[in-house]
Write a structure and sequence with these properties.
mainly alpha; 138 residues; 0% strand; 4 helices; 86% helix
């Protein structure tokens, strides 16, 4: 085995063990609850697995654990993947909403300023036309 492969196994091996056992435990819990396992459910979980792996790797790195602890945290993240992905999705959407509301508020302020400038300009033109104001400030 090459040193690069050994390094990959040493760094990510426990993550893969945790993903495998976590996925198996998730399906075991679903079967225990009486949920029929369908192909689309398996496909959805396989598509979510890379994101779960990234989240699990981040959790393991933040916790500073190695070995079996990393596998255990990863398995827990995999079992609760739906909740974890929903949590991060909701957090992301809240940040997008906040940024969007800030942008909307800035645009509204710019529009109000533009409208006020237009109204002021119209008043000046009307005042000049009615003779209430001179053409130039003298």
């Amino acid at each position: 085995m090459t040193p690069g492969v050994e390094a990959l196994i040493a760094k990510y091996g426990w993550i893969w063990v945790g993903l495998t056992f976590g996925l198996a435990a998730k399906y075991a819990l679903l079967i225990k609850r009486g949920v029929k396992i369908k192909a689309w459910l398996v496909i959805a979980d396989i598509l979510l697995l890379p994101m779960v792996a990234l989240i699990a790797f981040w959790i393991v790195k933040q916790a500073g654990v190695d070995g079996e602890g990393a596998a255990l945290l990863t398995a827990a993240a995999t079992v609760g993947a739906d909740r974890v992905v929903k949590l991060y999705t909701d957090r992301f959407l809240r940040q997008v909403d906040a940024a969007l509301m800030e942008t909307v508020a800035q645009h509204k302020a710019a529009i109000r300023e533009e409208v006020q400038t237009e109204l002021s300009g119209a008043r000046v033109v009307n005042d000049i036309a009615k003779g209430k104001r001179p053409i130039a400030d003298e």
